[in-house]
Each structure stands twice: as C-alpha cells, then as structure tokens.
Amino acid sequence: MSQNGYNKTQAALVKAVIMLCKPLIRLLIEKGMTFPQFRELMKELYVEVADKHFSLDDNKPSDSRIFVLTGVHRKDVKRIRQQAESGSEQITSSASLSGEIVARWTSMPDYIDDKGKPRQLLKNSKSNEAGFEQLVSSVNKDVRPKVILEEWLRLNIVRLKDDFVILNKSAFVTNKEFTEMAYYLGHNVHDHMASCVNNILVEADPMLERSVYYASLTEDSVNKLKTIASKKGNDLLQHLNKQAIKLYDADKHKDDATHRMRLGVYWYQAQLDKDKESEE
After folding, report:
1. Distance CA 252, CA 108 (A)
2. Is the full-model pTM beyond 0.70?
3. Beta strand pairing call for 164-167 and 121-122
4. Range of the domain at 200
C-alpha cells in the first residue's frame, strides 16, 4: 500500500473510532470512570489483543514485538503480562476521584459520627470542624470543592440541607439493573463490532451486518417506523430462538459442538444536528 493510501486508511479508521467511542466516553464520564483509569485499561487491552492475535509461527510474541505493534512501553508490557499470568485483576485498582472522596467520608474519623455513619458536613466550614471543602481538598487540592458538589448534586450522590452537605444512602450502591444492562452492553456490542471488524479484515464469507438509515423525518414518522421495527424485530428473534433451541438440543452432546452465534436487533433515533448529517 502506498503512503497516501495508508494515510487515507488511517484517516477513515480514526473517523470511525471517534464516532463509535463518543457514546462510550459519555457513559464512562457519567459513571465516574476517569481518563487515567481508561488509559490504563486500554494499555492492558492493547497488550492482551496483541498477545492473542499477533503471534509468529504459533509462538507467543515477545515483549519487544508487542512494543513494536502497540507502542506500549516494554516495562508496561512485561508488568501487564505478569499480572495476566498470575491471575491479577485486569481493571486498574485506582479508584475514581469521587470514589476516593466517598471512601474517606464513610471511613475517616473526622467525617463520621459516633455510630460510624457519614455525618453532615458544612459546605463552607471555617471552624476547626472538618467540612466538605476540607474533605475534597484532603483527596485532591487541584479540584475546587464547588465543582465536585455541583456534579454530585446532579448525580444525586448528595443533597443540601441549609448549609450542610448530606451523603445520600443510595450513593454508590450496586444497581442490579445497571449491572445486567452493562453485561449486555459489553457482550452485544462486542459481537456487533467483531462482526464489522471481521468484514473489514476477512474478505471471504462476510458476516451479516446491515442497517436501514433515513434522515429528515418527522418525529411521528420515526415513531411509526419504531413500532414496525419493534414488532418485526421481535418476531425474528422469537423465530430464530425456537430454531436455535431445537438445534441446541440436537447438538449439545456432539464432539464438534464448539461454535456460538448471536443475532442482535437495535434501534436508535435522535434529532439531527443542524451542522451535521447524523447525530452522534
């Protein structure tokens, strides 16, 4: 491939990656995963994928080869591979800023009452009693407490009562429904993206990956199409599920029953951005 062709390929890929990452970044920010956490996670994933898919002559790639392929420093490559071999948790253990602040609020003697519960904190404490500003500053002096407070009020992590900041009981409690939705986000979108990547990298026998797109429609028209899509999509999934159950019952004890499949149906609608052809 010529340098010009390579540059065009890279530009097209970057454009696609930016578009597909925007909804993900929005979710990460909303749920408190910071850029340093995401950066470390991406570093680990680069090493994992290079280790799995870019071997030579069936030999695992060396640390130097992974460095060349990914740009991840050899010291980090070695550390990440050792963690993987020892079964260490992949996701970085460093907590988000909000998590660190809440952890202090719920455990440090200055911020809990006689019963060990997080006490109400003065928003602007000027006495010797530790308040909300002191709490935030004890974790990070580069962030203004007012910024944290405004974001926490938006997320319903805290509430205000007179001059006091109160930590809500629901703050950072595990949400079963969110956990399930996150599970399907990972699995469904992974397989959809894997199908797309397969069709780009493997020319023979492309996988099914189709969509219907129309713009310049009224909200009423979009809702009519949504009703049709929901009905037809559900019918398709139910029909395929019935067929899959029959085949699974016949195949499950066979020695060559080593394959899996997933068919997904999705719907997305939004108002058009006046300055762009599609809404991101």
Report:
1. 54
2. no
3. antiparallel
4. 174-210
